[in-house]
Amino acid sequence: MNIADHASRAPQSTALIVADGKQMSYGELYLRSQRVAAVLHEAGLRRGDGVALVLGNCPEFLEITWGCQLSGLYYTPINTHLTFDEVAYIVCDCEARALFVDSSFAQFGSRILDACPRLDVLVSVGERRTGWRCYEDALVAAGDAPRCQTAARCCTPPAPPGGPRRCAVRCPHRVARGPRR
């Protein structure tokens, strides 16, 4: 799905209905995705950089992944049921410079920085945590998102029994190209 197409054609149409009944339109979802792109750009991430996500099934997951696509960034979703060591392995392996987590993972704080020194940006979705940037605060403070076109990759598989392996499949994302004209 190209969210930019939906947002330009029918911005008031419902894009998401969350379990608590809250609804979000395509226009709102696209705007929040653009703000995510701006947050990452302002933090110094550029086309081709990596972002890791340790998030459950939530609207923020979609906002962040589409924000990454709009920015030309690669994103790697990570299973929330993995141990700290498994998450750290994947974050390092995908060469993430930014990490978005739900508040339960944010408890690991500086341990993740010790394990993955390449990380520049730590963002906690949900409640505020010491040492982590608050997701909602970051979006409120965000400027305009840059336009970027690129290929994107997602998903680093867990280490198989035979040893580590990386995902290097690159595929063009229509989202990064913007709405059709």
TrEMBL record:
Any Pfam family from its record, for instance, is: AMP-binding
Lineage: superkingdom: Bacteria
Q: Which residues form the AMP-dependent synthetase/ligase domain?
A: 5-105
InterPro entries documented for this protein: AMP-dep_synth/lig_dom, ANL_N_sf, ATP-dep_AMP-bd_enzyme
Residues annotated as signal peptide: none
This protein is called what?
AMP-binding enzyme family protein
Say which species the protein is native to.
Answer: Mycobacterium xenopi 4042
